[in-house]
Amino acid sequence: MPRDHDLDWDMEVLEEQPPKDGAIQLTHWKRIVAAGLPWRVRDRRSGIEMLLCPAASLIVGSSIEEHGRQPDETLLSVRIGRPFYLGAMAVSQAQWLRVMPNNPSVHEGAGLPVDNISAWQCVEFAKACGPGFRFPSEAEWEYAARAGSGTPFSHADEILAEEVNYNGRHPYRDGPTGPNRRAPVPVGSLPPNRWGFHEMLGNVWEWCSALRSRVGHGTDERVDTVLRGGSWGNHAFSCRCASRIVRMPEYRRMTAGFRIARDVTPSA
Description:
- By secondary structure, this protein is of the alpha+beta class.
- About 15% of the residues lie in helices and about 20% in strands.
- The strands form 3 sheets. The protein has a 6-stranded antiparallel β-sheet with strand order 1-2-3-6-12-7. A 4-stranded mixed β-sheet has the order 10-9-8-11, covered by helices on one side. The protein has a two-stranded antiparallel sheet with strand order 4-5.
């Protein structure tokens, strides 16, 4: 039976380890086990489910051959030096209202992702959740979004609008057209990637802190906040793992949301 670990926040252990069924790559499964921390947990205050991301190295960005590539997606080798937890889904409006006094969303619904929020509002939410909570860096975000893959999307070289919420009238390369929902879908309602993260691509853009080496590759060299992953209103190429848009932290749109991260200390 799952048990609560002596971690430094009020959380519930849902699963000690991911199933060893081949869905998660063996190397990633071994890193999770070696970290000595529970894999899936729930923050009791907000109700947010989070998954453990162990320390690892990866390549972020896209190759010059990748369709839809933008100039600020240069390939970089990065090191995730410490394990951290990341929301299995974007923060929902119900979860937001468990912590914050009002709902800023344009598309209202308890199970929908909170939208129309600035990076500053994400910071305020993280502070209200307690010590250690924050929004992720874009390297951490891409680490979880790629789920070990080096392809444009987390599972393949193309996506379908039935699996990812983007404007299906504008598929990737020569892919099939699909539905254009014109709105976000409830968090957790579309298939997860191989590591268990839902809707990292499409649905809503997700706020992250920018890689220092990429600050200045946008509209203003002082801007160190970015949005990642694309949204329900975008063409498929904007929903690639490497896709990013630089925005001032006060930027708000009905296509912008976020998922929460939390720092941990691995067991000795």
